[in-house]
Amino acid sequence: MVLKMVASSYEDSRRKRMEENRKRMEALNLTQLSQFLRKLSSPISKPSPSKPRTSEKQLVVVRRSGRIANLPAPVYKERGYNMYTDYSRVYASEEARVEALYKAEKLQSELNSKHPIFIKTIRQSHITGGFWLGLPVHFCKQNLPEQDEFMTLIDEDGDEYRTTFLAQKKGLSAGSRRFAIAHKLADGDALIFELVNRTTFKVYIIRVNPSKGEDLE
C-alpha cells in the first residue's frame, strides 16, 4: 500500500514538472525554434544539372570585293625567284668564278689604262633584293668623292646608267639595279670598273658563263 502511494505521488510530480516545462518552452518560443532547426537539418535536394547548350556551326561563304572578284587568283613563285630579273637564282661554281676573274685580270692588263681601275666579282646579293654593290674601300678612299654623289656607269656599247654613290657605305645604291637588269648580270660575273673621270665609270663585263650570257643578250 505504501509503494502504491509513493509511485502515485512520483507520477503526479513528474506530470507537474512536464507541464511546467511545456509552459516555459511556449513562453520562450522554443517549440517553433526546434521545428525550424529540424527543417535545416533535413537533406537538401540538389537541382539536376542542365544540359549544355550546343550551337550548330554553319559554313559562311566569304564574299570577295567587287573590284577583285573577277581577277585571277594570285600565283606565288617558289623561293629563289627574282621578281626584278625574272629568272631563278643560279650560283656559279668556284672554278667558273676563278676563270671569269682570270679573264678579267687579263683584259685589265690589255687595256693598259692610266685611269684608276679595279675588278669586282658579282655575288647574288649584288643582283637580287636591294641591288647593293659595294666597292673596294681603299679604292673609294683614294679616288671617289667624300660625300654622296651621282655617278654614271657606261657599258661597252656606250649606254649610260646613273647611280648613287654612298660615301659612308662605300658602294653604289640607286641605279645599280637598272644596270644589273639591263645586262642580266649573274653570280660569278667579273666586272672591270675604270674611273674615266671623277664621277664616271667605264664598265667591262666578263661572263662567268659566256654561252649563257650570249643567249640572254
Question: How does this model look, in words?
Answer:
There is one protein chain. The protein is α+β, with helices and mostly antiparallel strands. It has a domain of 123 residues: Beta Barrel (At1g16640 B3 domain), CATH 2.40.330.10. 38% of the residues lie in helices and 17% in strands. The chain has seven helices and seven strands. It has a seven-stranded mixed β-sheet with strand order 1-6-7-3-4-5-2, sandwiched between helices. The radius of gyration is 50 Å and the shape is rod-shaped. The C terminus is likely disordered. It holds the Pfam family B3.
Helices and strands, with pairings:
Blueprint lengths: L1 H27 L1 H12 L52 H18 L5 E5 L2 H4 L5 E2 L2 H7 L5 E6 L5 E7 L4 E2 L3 H7 L7 E8 L2 E7 L3 H7 L1
Parallel strand pairs: 3-7
Antiparallel strand pairs: 1-6, 2-5, 3-4, 4-5, 6-7
The secondary-structure class comes to alpha+beta
Unreliable stretches: 60-87, 213-217
Rg estimate, integer Å:
50 Å
What string gives the helices and strands in order? HHHEHEHEEEHEEH
> Strand order of the main beta sheet, please?
1-6-7-3-4-5-2
CATH topology name of the domain at 94-216, in short, is At1g16640 B3 domain
CATH superfamily of the domain at 94-216: DNA-binding pseudobarrel domain
Which descriptors apply to this entry?
single chain, 217 residues, alpha+beta, At1g16640 B3 domain, seven-stranded mixed β-sheet, 7 helices, 7 strands, 38% helix, transcription, DNA binding, DNA-binding
